[in-house]
Amino acid sequence: MFSFGKKEEPDLVEVLDQRRPSNVDAMNQQHRKSVSNRGLTGASALTVKQSIFPITLVTILFFLWGFAYGLLDVLNAKFQNSLGITAAKAGGLQGAYFGAYLIGPPTYSGWIVRKFGYRWTFIAGLLIYGVGALMFWPSAVYRSFAGFCGSLFIVGSGLSTLETSANPFIATCGPPRLSEFRLEISQSFQAIGSVMAPLLASRVFFKETDPTDLANVQWTYLGIAAFVVLLAIVFYFAPIPEVTDADMALQAEQCSGLTGYTEKPLRRQYKLFFGVAAQFCYVGAQVGVAAQFIKYSVESAGISDAAGSDRYAIGQGLFAIGRFAAAGLMMVMKPRWVLLIFMTGVMIFIAASMGVKGEGGVAMLSLVLFFESCVFPTIFTLSIRGLGRHTKRGSSWIVAAVSGGALFPSLTGLVADHKGYHISMCVPLIGFAVAFAFPVYLNTVCAKELDGFRESKIGYHDEEGLAVGDIKYEERRASLVHEEKGMSPAEKEVSY
User: Fold this and answer.
1) Handedness of CA 340, 170, 449, 11 (dihedral sign)
2) What are phi and psi of 241, to 5 degrees?
3) What pLDDT, on the 0 to 100 scale, is given for residue 263?
């Protein structure tokens, strides 16, 4: 298991022996058909200015799957009503969507990103997503629940491929000290997509339609299919620098004085494994809450499904606000502290939602969504800190942990069918409790390593305008050292 994908990773000696390109070279080599994951590109020292455009482009992808995820939860409730299925069976929709995450990232998605680089992984993910969206048309026409599940599985395959590339790309494209902030901001737009989806579902897609009519769904996904194909074309021509595992190995080595980094095989990356387990349980619990939010609101406050959808939109709005708030906090507070604070809030309010009735219960569950906001991207970035040459493979594992969303909704729905929606929140509570242990571990065991990356100046300009960590910066430092020692040009040649 640990050796799968190992051959695409470089050895540290191999990395240090290579000729080092500059960050300017990385920006000038953006149109290569593919990139060797074992070779340096110069992207280990990209500046903020150099990374703004590619990060903005990739952020569009976060909005896309945020929209798909938000629409999925509304469709879940819609299918329960129109097809007369139980809450547990409706969890099969989540099972199909998130089950794809268990297969793709550790296998073909991870292989594509290591073999061909980020650009082609973006394109492959978008095209798979487009095929899945097209499959919704016959599924809606024949009102086939199995067809919808199959379509969602293909959509999930595409989006998991996108996440396998987008999350590590955002985390590594730019100065390492801003890694958590970058991913938090980008995923804030994913949250905005999640807000827009239920609003459009209740106000546009299903407004004044027969409760059993699913025809509007097919037109929605036909439009999505056309859009993602156009986006794939944009990514083919877009200037996207490639960040390889060799680049990340070099960056980790450059930060070793601050972080205490030492080269270790993947099987000894214990922080990564804990992060995978925490992400699995957290995402499962998050999806369990989201899948039952509308029905919980109906049970708790005695409102209609449409009103429940509006309450869910408010909760998703709080989720989006929470991500922007967390990103702001990360500029003045250590990300490991922010994660601990937000996970504490999740634990408090998910427990409260089990006992509080009426609109108060809906408010408690909405606050759970607010505090969930920063958890996924922060677990992701903190888990891959210090992986070096294992960064892409480790990232694939964390994305695969999203498959927890295939398990928890069905369990939550099963409890809801027998005990009600308030009691069913005990299932997400268990998942959140496991995830809560991760920030405790980070703040007690991994504090020095994580804080070292935050203190790094790599990718920032020095007083001479050179990017710290770039080859030109290193050459200038070496030149100054020789000058201070009073060495002649001939002696410098010998010293190299």
Assistant:
1) positive
2) -70, 145
3) 87
Helix axes 48-83, 87-103, angle to 10 degrees: 150
Helix (H, G, I), strand (E, B) or coil at 461: strand
Candidates 79, 70, 69, 227; CA nearest to 159 is: 69
Q: 478 Cβ partners below 8 Å, 6+ apart? A: none
State the helix-helix crossing angle for 270-301 and 408-419, rounded to 10 degrees. 30
* CB atoms near residue 255 (< 10 Å): 24
Structural contact between residues 79 and 281, judged by C-beta atoms closer than 8 angstroms: no
DSSP result, 305-352:
HHHHHHHHHHHHHHHHHHHHHHHHHHTTS-HHHHHHHHHHHHHHHHHH
| Dihedral sign from CA coordinates of 266, 270, 275, 277 | positive
Beta carbons within 8 Å of 424's beta carbon, 6+ residues apart: 292, 296, 412, 413, 415, 416
CA angle 77, 223, 69 (to 5 degrees): 35
Contact assessment for residue 40 and residue 246, using Cβ atoms and an 8 Å cutoff? yes
Contact 10, 389 (CB under 8 A): yes
**Could you tell me if 241 and 35 are in contact, meaning their C-beta atoms sit under 8 angstroms apart?**
no
Q: Are 405 and 286 in contact (CB under 8 A)?
A: yes
Q: Which residues of 232-241 are buried (b: 16+ CB within 10 A; e: fewer)?
A: beebeebebb
**Listed residue (437, 434, 430, 330) closest to 373, CA to CA:** 330
List, in sequence order, every residue forming a beta bridge with 461; answer none if it has no partner.
Answer: 467
Give the residue ranges of the chain where pLDDT is below 70: 1-6, 30-34, 65, 68-91, 198, 202-218, 481-496
Nearest to 282 by CA among 129, 428, 113: 428
Query: For the chain, what's the residue count?
Result: 496
| Cβ–Cβ under 8 Å, residues 98 and 404 | yes
Tokens of 169: 């790309």
Q: What angle, 0 to 180 degrees and rounded to 10, lies between the N-to-C axes of helices 391-400 and 270-301?
A: 30
In 3D, which of 385, 303, 346 has the Cα closest to residue 338?
Answer: 346
Tell me how far apart the alpha carbons of residues 39 and 389 are, in angstroms, rounded to a whole number: 11
Q: Tell me the longest C-alpha to C-alpha distance in the chain.
A: 86
How buried is 464 (Cβ within 10 angstroms: 0-12 exposed, 13-18 middle, 19+ buried)? exposed
Write phi, then psi, for 210 (nearest 5 degrees): -60, 130
pLDDT of residue 482: 64
Give the C-alpha separation, 316 to 8, whole Å: 39
Predicted local distance difference test score (pLDDT) of residue 495:
42
pLDDT for position 85: 66
CA distance 279 to 397: 10
